[in-house]
Amino acid sequence: MAWTTIRTAAVLDLPAFAEPVEIHHDPAQHALLALDPATGESEVLTTRLPDFPLLPDEAVVKDWSEHRGLARALAEAGVVELLDAIAVGPFAATAHRVRVLTAGGAA
To answer: How far apart are CA 97 and CA 54, in angstroms?
Structure first.
């Protein structure tokens, strides 16, 4: 994957992200990744839906389990713009199609 840093100190209002994280983006994979600069630990923030077409600046963020509220937190931090909600899987769990905001470079 070809990751590009789009934010260097994003504050996400979620318990799993107590400290600011770097946000990296790979448009070819429609992926976002959070990196803790202090520990080097990383977490992929997006999910892939193979049959769901996306534009290069879009991604899908799941909103269930440990990622409940993640799409909202990313939007509030100015990392993404929420586009629409998607029902996923046999239990119609919610995911969000988002536009990744990279204007202005790393912030």
So the answer is: 8
| Alpha-carbon span 79 to 10, nearest angstrom | 8
Q: What is the DSSP letter of 27?
A: T
Q: What is the pTM of this model?
A: 0.90
Contacts of 101 (CB under 8 A, 6+ apart): 6, 78, 79, 80, 81
99: β partners = 58, 81
- How does DSSP classify residue 66? G
pLDDT digits (tens, 9 = 90+) for 50-68: 889 999 899 999 998 888 9
Tell how strand 21-26 and strand 4-10 pair up: antiparallel
CA gap 94, 89 in Å, rounded = 9
Closest listed residue to residue 95, CA positions, set 60, 49, 58: 60
pLDDT (average), residues 42-47: 95
Phi, then psi, of 69 in degrees rounded to 5: 90, 0
Q: What is the rounded distance in angstroms from the CA atom of residue 89 to the CA atom of residue 76?
A: 27
